[in-house]
Specification:
The chain is of the alpha/beta class. The protein has 11 helices and 10 strands. The strands form 2 sheets. A 5-stranded parallel sheet has the order 2-1-3-4-5, sandwiched between helices. Strands 6-7-8-10-9 form a 5-stranded mixed sheet, with helices on one face. A hairpin with a 3-residue loop joins strand 9 and strand 10 (345-353). The relative contact order is 0.06. The structure holds adenosine-5'-triphosphate and magnesium ion. Keywords: ATP-binding, Coiled coil, Kinase, Nucleotide-binding, Phosphoprotein, Transferase, Two-component regulatory system. It catalyses: ATP + protein L-histidine = ADP + protein N-phospho-L-histidine.
Length: 363
């Protein structure tokens, strides 16, 4: 913690000379040889922070400047400050606004009439420590995210490899076996009983070929590569309906080609988990899937009329399937919203920006 009371370089954004003098006195009372620079307008503060942001350790901000004020002022200053803590000093006695300003990225909110040298100093020390901790947390969160990204890519690559092996190796061998059985059936001296047995074996081999295709396709849906995401989801929904006998309505507008492969596989996996969850847990009678190809965005919604997800389960960090859906959405910068109730079932909404830009609602 910076308690050595030196190396404080403070930008005071304040147009009132009396208030500035008071703040200056308080700072000198607590800190050795501080550097204090005054910006009387937002324009000046902006110039200073744009050119020499790193020269400062703390910004003290008055909320009513002649050229800017209130919430819009906070937005711009916080943006300009980056990692530098911003402490709001104000005459506004609006407690609710004070709390809100903290959610806008301000480190602390102090009322001028309650200000003392000690409270100001304490706030500066705490704010700078808090900023350091937050920035360390953000870095480690980013590390975890990068790791999750790599893990997911590796997982998909491995699934593709296994799917290819299963399809090409087993698939070919079974096809070979089927041809041999057919030839055997036609060979001389094969009696009626053996022929019947061969027919049974051919049926078994056909079933195995279908299973191999099914397993390979579940590991890596070939339809994505061949016909695109919408067709692959259509297949997924058909499979879901046939296997689970739950009425499913799929609405899709124009298909979307040329979508980034990473987006496709992650959107597909999210739909896959959502439908698997409905099959396993929802006890639904109707499922609606909607795929919309908008100008800049792709929207996917999956709703069921089942028993809903309990709020505690929805927010449980151990719900790995749900967590994985959120993580995948996050990897592609998409917004994923899951809303659920026991009356109306579960609604999952995924909004993906086509240009790959991060969606505002995504973490
Ligand atoms: N559509 C749904 N309707 C009702 N309950 C659901 C639905 N989706 C999920 N749940 C509930 O949320 C829980 C967590 O889901 P999640 O997908 O994380 O785990 P899981 O499906 O139980 O296991 P996993 O996905 O890891 O195989 C489920 O156990 C279930 O209770
Ligand atoms: Mg699940």
């Amino acid at each position: 913690m910076n308690t050595d009371r030196s190396d404080y370089r403070i930008l005071v954004v304040e147009d009132n000379p009396g208030d500035f003098a008071l703040v200056e006195d308080f700072i000198f009372e607590q800190i050795e040889a501080p550097v204090i620079v005054q910006a009387k307008t937002f324009k000046t503060a902006k110039e200073i922070l744009t050119k020499k942001r790193n020269d400062y350790t703390t910004v003290l901000l008055d909320l009513s400047l002649s050229d800017h004020a209130g919430e819009p002022l906070i937005h711009e200053i916080v943006e300009l400050c980056g990692d530098i803590p911003v402490i709001v000093l104000t005459g506004y006695t609006d407690f609710a606004f004070g709390v809100k300003s903290l959610s806008l990225g301000v480190s602390d909110y102090l009322l001028k009439e309650d200000l003392t040298a000690t409270s100001l100093y304490k706030s500066m020390v705490y704010s700078s420590e808090r900023k350091k901790i937050i920035s360390a947390l953000e870095t480690s969160e980013q590390d975890v995210r990068n790791f999750a990204n790599q893990l997911n890519n590796a997982l998909e690559a491995e699934r593709s490899r296994i799917a290819r092996e299963i399809h090409d190796e087993f698939g070919q061998q079974l096809s070979g076996l089927k041809m041999s059985l057919s030839s055997l059936k036609k060979s001389k001296g094969v009696g009626h009983d053996i022929e019947k047995l061969i027919d049974v074996l051919i049926v078994d081999v056909n079933t195995s070929i279908a299973s191999v295709r099914q397993i390979a396709n579940e590991l890596r849906p070939v339809l994505i590569d061949k016909l695109g995401l919408f067709a692959a989801i259509e297949w997924l929904v058909n499979e879901f309906e046939n296997k689970n006998r739950v009425k499913s309505q799929l609405y899709k507008d124009t298909d979307w080609y040329g979508i980034d492969e990473k987006l496709e596989i992650n959107i597909y996996r999210i739909c896959q988990e959502a439908l698997t969850n409905i099959a396993k847990h929802a006890k639904a009678t109707l499922v609606k899937i909607r795929l919309e190809n908008r100008v800049d965005q792709l929207s996917v919604t999956i709703s069921d009329d089942g028993r809903g997800i309990k709020s505690s389960t929805l927010h449980n960090p151990l719900s790995m399937g749900l967590l994985n859906m959120k993580e995948r959405a996050n990897l592609i910068g998409a917004a994923l919203n899951i809303s659920s109730s026991s009356d109306s079932g579960t609604l999952i909404e995924l909004i993906v920006n086509k240009n790959g830009q991060k969606n505002i609602n995504s973490r």
